[in-house]
Amino acid sequence: MVKRGFQSSVSQRSSQRASSRGARYFEAIEVKIGILAVQGDFEAHATMLEQLGAQTAEVRTPADLEGCDGLILPGGESTTQLKFLQEEGLADKIVKFAERGGAIFGTCAGAILLASDVRHPEQDSLHLMDMTVVRNAYGRQIASDVVSGPTVLKKEPLEMVFIRGPVIERAGPGVKVLAEYAGKPALVQRENIMAATFHPELTDDTTVHEHFLSLAKARAKQPTNGGKSSS
User: Fold this and answer.
1) DSSP string covering 157-195, please?
2) Cβ proximity of 135 and 149 under 8 Å
3) SS3 for 149?
C-alpha cells in the first residue's frame, strides 16, 4: 500500500502549481483519456490531465474505454490490478485498444502490467512493451523518495517520485529511453505506449503528461474510427 502522508503531500503541491503550465498547450484539443480507477492515485492523474485541457473518464469496465484516445494505468499493486483486468474483461480490451493505436501510459504498477517480462517474483502481464522489470527493486516503502534524473523531453532534470518502484532492467529493440535514474531507464516509450517506474502525477512538472497527451492527440486526429479510438 502507498504511504498516504507522503503521497498526499506531494499530490497536493502538484494540484496547486501545475495548472498554470499545461493548459496553454492542450486547452483547444479534444482529447479524452481514460484512467483505470481501481487503485493508486488516479485522481491525481485526472487533475493533471484536466489542467492540461484534456477530458478524463474513470475506467472500470470495457464500456468505459469507449471513445477514449488514451488510457492511463496508475500505481497500486500489479497482481491485484491484473486480476481485476482479467476478471472484468478489460485485459483483452486494453490489448486490442493498444493494437489499434490507442495511447497507453503505465506508471509504477502500470509499467509492470505493460512489461513483457516481470521478475521478483515472476507474474503474468499484458505483454505490450518489450522490457524486463523487477518489482520493488528501489526498496521498501520507507525508502521512497523524490529524486531527479536526465530526460530527453527537456533540458532540465526531471523530478521523479518513487514509491516502491520497479526497475527496468532491459529495454528491447524499438523501446526509446526518455528518462533515466541511477543509470536505469525510468521512462520509456514504444510507439503509442509509455511506461514510467515513478509517479509523474505527484510532481509539479507536467512534462511527462504533456508528452503522453501528444501521443493521444495524434491518435485523436487520425481519420480512422471517426478520429476516435475504437476499442
Assistant:
1) PEEEEESS--EEEEE-TTPEEEEEETTEEEEEEETTEEE
2) no
3) strand
CA dihedral sign, ordered 195, 196, 201, 204: negative
* Residue 151 DSSP label: B
Quote the pLDDT of residue 125: 87
Peptide bond preceding 223 in cis form (omega within 30 of 0): no
Phi and psi (nearest 5°) for 154? -160, 170
| pTM of the predicted model as reported, rounded to 2 decimal places | 0.84
Averages of pLDDT over runs of 10 residues in the chain (231 residues) are 44 46 53 92 94 96 96 91 93 95 96 94 89 80 77 97 92 96 96 96 95 90 53 48
Residue position matching grid coordinates 530527453: 152
Instruction: Single out the residue of 178, 34, 16, 56 nearest to residue 104, CA to CA.
Output: 34
Which CATH superfamily groups domain 4-218? Class I glutamine amidotransferase (GATase) domain (3.40.50.880)
**So which residues are the catalytic ones?**
108, 199, 201
